[in-house]
Amino acid sequence: KRVAVLISGSGSNLQALIEASRSPDYPAEIVLVLSNRPGVFGLERAAAAEIPSVVIPHGDYPSRAAFDAAMQSVLTQNDIDCICLAGFMRILTPSFTKAWEGRMLNIHPSLLPAFKGYDAIGQVLASSVSVTGASVHTVTSEVDAGDIVAQGAVRRDPDDTRESLTGRIHAVEHLLYPYALRSFLRGEASPPPAPALSGAVFS
Ligand code: GRF
Questions:
Q1: For ligand 1, atom 9, which residue shows the shortest CA distance?
Q2: Per the CATH hierarchy, to which homologous superfamily does domain 1-100 belong?
Q3: pLDDT at residue 86 is higher than 90
Q4: 94-113 burial: b if 16+ Cβ within 10 Å, else e
């Protein structure tokens, strides 16, 4: 499948998907990276992997609908089958989510349906939960809803800082997203990743 990854920042999850897709039996090829922000590090990752990228600065468009239409046209030109949102910080219009229904995934740094929305890690730190994690889910018009494709759990320590917890969540995300995309595209339950991280649980 021809996959486009949509980013707004560092792109560490993009990197994990690029690396997974290099394996010959991986069912996805990352053929396009699309960013709504110029100059972000994820674009350098795409260049280093020789993957074409397009920047569509959202501020150049008068409305969300016009911005989404610009993205749609680039995605259509590139014959994209499936979209992975990876740190993409724009809310999509219902007509865009409808057009990609069943063909668009997102990764969110919490165990959904807990801690939806902006700054999930901050929400976790402000709560008393002792377990959190990351979720890959299909994208619908409702933010951070949709069906859960896969989740990875991460312990939350009492003395966690934002940096320490973010680091552990990222490490789980980088295993989880490639695994979730693979099982999603194969339409089958595949074995979860080997327990490469101590304390991480996938389901
Ligand atoms: C990840 O934590 C993801 O869950 C959230 O945004 C972050 C993106 O990080 N949606 P990166 O750009 O992939 O490094």
A1: 87
A2: Formyl transferase, N-terminal domain (3.40.50.170)
A3: yes
A4: eebbeebeebbbbbbbbbbe
